[in-house]
Amino acid sequence: MAMSIGSVGTVPAALASAGTGDAVAVSVLKKSLDIQEQTALQLLQALPQSAGGASARPVGALGNTINTFA
Hints:
Blueprint (H helix, E strand, L loop, with lengths): L9 H37 L24
């Protein structure tokens, strides 16, 4: 099998191109994750706040328990 010395110069160029492509892909991924984080935060902030939580209701109040007698 014969090897050509002329193809040696294309290897570093191909590796540099692949490295640049990877860097761009990582940058796009980071921006996408940042946008998703901002959107999730906005959705969480849009949820209504509860006035007191579940422990503020009396234990025997209507609708808090289910009787399962056979």
